[in-house]
Design a protein that fits this description.
With 300 residues, the protein is an all-beta fold. The protein has one domain. It contains 2 helices and 17 strands.
């Protein structure tokens, strides 16, 4: 039976400045330098320092800070103002260069700069990321390396398009959504994914990306915290889970714990009592792809 209540998003754990300084939990590589993850969620603190996929720090655990950390809690915003030499939406660099995010202070991505285009990688191609400090990669002028993970000492990810349009009205090709994190220093078009099927590549999980109100593939921070255990960011949790407010769970030894996704139409209910499958989005607000998505939490 479907239980109605306010959107589960209100159950997202919100964290102190210490956490918001990180991005998600480790979206990018496992290397601390890549915590700026250019390619790391949001996004619970938004899906590494989860970054944008390039380094840990995609704040997502990944070194990236979600555009709207208060709504997604997926990738927290960084705590220092960005100093930008270029605009990632305008891509206003000289010919032969592109505007990328980098870690100006050696931590997570907090600024943008122009770097030389050194490769021709197209969307979907494997790429090599130079790390958060340099922000370089071997993708083409129109694309950026995202979700980079340390593979035998090399930060290896996938090329994706930069977002088009503006920060207020971003645009991407059909089937992809603009992920804006770390106070707008990172803008990348990522494909949507299904949190129930977890249709992401190895090392990635389908996590909620609050700023874009969708789910996208983000690097799993650490080994992935199991259901019911304390968490700080969405991508801290093992794929198939969401970092929810501890008050929404039967027993949680922290302010937030990992809760498993479920299908609200599944009968009998997929959750263990007293937990129930509660709709993730408010009634009438769920994107079509997620209209049956729920979370195993306590009912009101």
């Amino acid at each position: 039976m479907r239980t109605t209540r306010n959107s589960v998003l209100i159950l997202t754990a919100f964290f102190s400045l210490a956490c918001t300084g990180k991005e998600e939990a480790t979206e990018g590589t496992t290397s601390s330098d890549t915590n700026a993850s250019m390619g790391t969620e949001d996004e619970v603190g938004t899906e590494d320092e989860v970054g944008t996929g390039e380094g840990t720090g995609e704040g997502e655990g990944e070194g990236e800070g979600d555009e709207d950390s208060t709504s997604s809690g997926f990738v927290p915003d960084t705590d220092m103002a960005a100093v930008n030499d270029c605009d990632p939406f305008m891509q206003d660099c000289p010919d032969g260069e592109k505007c990328v995010a980098y870690a100006s202070s050696g931590g997570t991505w907090d600024a943008n700069k122009c770097v030389a285009v050194t490769g021709t990688g197209a969307v979907g191609d494997t790429c090599v990321y130079g790390g958060a400090a340099s922000g370089t990669d071997d993708c083409s002028e129109e694309t950026v390396c995202w979700n980079a993970q340390d593979i035998e000492g090399v930060l290896t990810g996938t090329c994706f398009d930069f977002c088009g349009g503006t920060a207020e009205n971003p645009s991407c090709e059909d089937g992809t959504t603009c992920r804006i994190v770390n106070e707008g220093t990172i803008t990348v078009c990522l494909p949507d994914c299904d949190p129930l099927f977890q249709d992401c590549m190895d090392g990635l999980g389908c996590y909620y990306s609050g700023g874009s109100n969708t789910f996208q593939c983000i690097i799993v921070a650490g080994g992935g915290i199991p259901t019911g255990e304390p968490c700080g960011f969405n991508n801290d949790c093992a794929p198939g889970n969401y970092c929810a407010d501890g008050a929404a769970l039967e027993s949680c030894n922290g302010s937030a714990c990992c809760a498993s996704f479920c299908d609200i139409n599944e009968d009998p209910g997929p959750c263990e009592e007293p937990l129930q499958c509660v709709a993730f989005f408010d009634e009438g607000t769920a994107p079509p792809m997620y209209d049956t998505l729920g979370l195993c939490i306590l009912p009101l």
